[in-house]
Each structure stands twice: as structure tokens, then as C-alpha cells.
Fold this sequence. Notes:
Chain A is mostly helical.
Amino acid sequence: MSQSHQRRLPVWALRANGGVVLLFLYAPIILLVIFSFSASRIPGQWGGFTTEWYTTLFDDSRLQRTISVSVRVALVSTLIATVLGTMAALALERFTFRGRRVFDALLYLPIIIPDVTMAVMMLMFFSQSFNVVDAVFGLGLSKGFGTIVVSHVAFNIAFVSVVVRARIAGMNATLEQAASDLYASRWQAFRYVTLPLIAPGVFGGALLALTLSLDDVVVTQFVAGPGSTTLPVYVFSLIRKGVTPTINSVSVIMLVASLILVAGSVALQRANASRGRQQLQTSGGTS
Amino acid sequence: MKLGAAELKREREERRRGFFLALPSFAYMLLFFVLPLVIVLIYSFATRTSTGSTALSDWNLDAYRKLGEPIVRNVVVRSVVLALVTTVICLVVAYPFAWFCAHQRPTVRNVLLIAVMIPFWTNFLVRNYAWRILLSKGGPISTFTEAIGLGEVDILFTKTAVVIGLVYAYLPFMILPLYASIDRLDQRLIEAGRDLYGSGPQTFRRIILPLTMPGVIAGSILVFVPSMGAYVTPELLGGGKETMLGSYIVTQFLTARNWPVGASLSFVLMAVMLISTVIYFRSGGRNL
Lengths: 287, 288
């Protein structure tokens, strides 16, 4: 590898910058974890080691309720968004149909639209449609679990389809053609050839959807009902009232949850890369 | 002739399959994304009544005219300035970092890129909250600067704190596209520049920078647009004092109950986003 271009660039400066960037990215997270074990009642000040704030956590019934809402919302919305997003990805990558280009462009919008705009859209939509539903059917609908799930699916379909499409685009269509040449039915070809091949993309998309759903504050804050709030919205309202040591420990738990998801996605990417190679070899061997 | 007809029939069949495969998600997006978008557009031309409800009659541009009023203009100007400062800081920090990454051994490079990605995947609220703790009065940073004799640092609830939070939140968005374009850079062009006696800065300005421009533009848009619409960061680190466009819109809905103004500002924010995206694709960028 040619190093000549680096001759005039101060390598020590690049190294120092790299160190500062990594420090900047990780110091806050690490310090937050450390201070969650501080006995001081003022968050951010050290008062000796304690696990008190983790035990008080389990006494807070409101907190437990919001955690349960968060998890249920994330699982249900991820499931729906993954199915719909994968279907959209397959349709866009493997078929041509009327309205394809419009659909293609439409699926990029939720990704680039600002959170706040999305939140405003969903709030207005629900308040309008609930009025209509009430007038026509006499049903008094209210915001809550359902509206949160519908909103999360609305932005997650796009993210899932992008991830799955990337996987399909890098995949060889000849394998599916080979399956149909061997008289596999449409469904068989999908079930035994396409689905296993796109599975890493589908899981990757689902993990992203899960993360985004568990992360969301702004949209959820607008569409949550008084009885059902998710954990991030609840924690956000707590922080605004004033920071307490309990928020530190809740934050660390949220942090650990998201780190587990990252670990999952990194592991998936690796499996993805090696399995892709393996599959290519085995399929090359059988044909 | 007969074969042509069969072919045609098969193609029509394929099109139908594709359409029905796309139908559920397409219908979902039309109902729960496009329709809401249209409703926001309609509301932005409506009038707020004295009771705080919105009258869907008497259409006008009042909500958009409000953009010219000093209060709203201040919020817009502050948002643009803070988002620009954030973008420039990210660019200056991320460029050398991306360069550094691109010139490492593959294993080191992968570790560095994953290290950049991890904060991006961790909870956004928690990352902002961490800075609230770090910057608090008598908090870790203040204690540290006092210990080394620099005195107390009291910047929580200021513009500086908001910018730190925004840089922290969106730095990975700048590093990744920059890395992608630097990695694609043809080393021979740089060597050619050197052979023609170009100095270091000259080579950078005339060869490296133009070639990595798609990355610079992509990264800048990815940082600028969400910074403009930021809500959580200015709330937590600006303490509600340093209102930005995102937080102002939220206030219009949840506190001030002025839906037309909130709707028109949301639309303006989306327009900024759409224009930036068009600029990006025009400048030769591909999928993000």
C-alpha cells in the first residue's frame, strides 16, 4: 500500500484527532454508567458506590407500565413493518407495475422527513379521522397503544424496505430462475430460495425498526394517550421536571438494551457476509 | 404471433403480481402517511379561532405570514445558525477522522467504523441526557476543569451546550458518507498532483476536496436537516430557552394550540429537507 501521500500529512495530528473523536463519542456514555452507581442524590456528583437507584427502579409501577408499553409497541410495530416492508422491497426490486416509481419515491420520504413534521402529521391525522369515525359510526376512539403502533409502522416500513432492498439488489436473480426452471412453484421458489437468501436483510431491517421504535420520543409524544406512554416519552418528561439519580439508572438500562440490539446487528452483518459466500459456494456446487 | 400473445399475457400477469405484492404497504403509506401530509397542508391555510380550535374555512396565508414576525424569525434564524455551526464543526472534525479511517489496515478500519456506528444505534434520548449530567453544575466536566485550574464551566442551558449535543448526536452521519467517498478516492490522482509539484494544500483543494464533494454534501445534509428540526436536544441542553424550529413547532401544538402556525412551520421544515435532498441528488450523489 502506498504511503507516499501521507508523507506531508501530519500523522500525529490525524491520530490525535481520532483519539479525541473516540473519546468524545464514548466518554459521555461511560461516565453516565459510572455515575448511575453514585450514592449522591445529585446526578453527576460522586458520593460513593451504591446500587440503590437500580433497586428503587423496581418499585416504580409507572415505570414498569411504560416499559411494558414500549416493548409491546416495539414488537407489534416491528412485526407489521417487517412484513409490509419486505413485501414492498420484493415488489420494487423484482417486479414492474403501475405506480412503481411513485411508490419508490414515496418510500424515501419517511426516512428524510424531520421527526417533528412526522409527529405533527400523525397528530392531525388522528384527531381528524377520529372526528370522522365518531360522526359516521359513533365510535369514540382515543389515542393510545393503537395510534402509537400505527405511527411507528408508518415510519418503519420505509426503513425495513431500504435494508431489505439493499440485500435483494446484491443477490443473484439466477438462483430464483434456476428454481423455477426446476419446476418449483412460485411459492416454493420464494419459500426455499428467495426467503433464506434475503433473511439476513429482513432480520437487519427488523432490528433497525425495533431500535427506532424503542428510540422514538417526538412522534410518540404526539400520539400517545394519557394512559399509555412509552418509556422514552416518560423519561423525557421526568428529565424536564428535573434530573434525579433514578433517571441515571433507567438511562443505563435503556443503553444496555440498545447495545444488545447493536451487538445483534453487528453479529448479523458478519454472519451475513460469511453466509453469503458459503451459499454462493454450495449453490455453485449443486448446479 | 401466438407466442407474442402468450408472452404479453405472462408479462401482464407479472405486473399484476408485483402490484398486489406492493398493494398492502402502498395502501398503508397512502392512508397513514400521504393523507396525514395532505391534512397538514390543508391546516396550514386554516384559521385559528379565539378558543384555540381551528376553523376549517376562511382559507388564508396568515400562518405563513407569521414567519416574518420577529418571534418566529428569531427562532428560524437561531435554528439556521445553530444547525450551520453544528454542520461546520462536524465537517472539520469528521473529515480528518474519515481520512484516518480510510488509511488503516482493514481490521483497524472495521473496528473504527463499528466504533462510530455504536453511538448511532444507542438510544438518542440517553445520549442527550448524558451531556445534561456531564455539563451540570458541579458535574464531571466542571470538576475536571476546576481541578486543572481552568475554573468552573457553566454552559448548560446555553447555545454552546445545544451545539455540543447536536454535534454529539449527528457526528456519525458526517463520518460515514465522508469515509465512503474518501475510500473511493483514486490514489493515483493524488500522486499525479504531487508529481506536478502541487503542494499539500494545493493537492487537497484542487484534487482531494472536489473528488470527495459528494461525501461532504451528503454528510452536511444529513447533519444540517435533523439539526434544524431538533427538538429533544434544545429541550434538554438548552433548557427550553434556546428554542429551535423543532421545539417551536411542538409548542404550537401542545401548549399554544395554534395548529395553523405549527402546520405551516412543519411544512417549511419539510421543504428545507426536500430541497436539500434534491441538491444532493443533483450534485451526483447516489443512495445515502
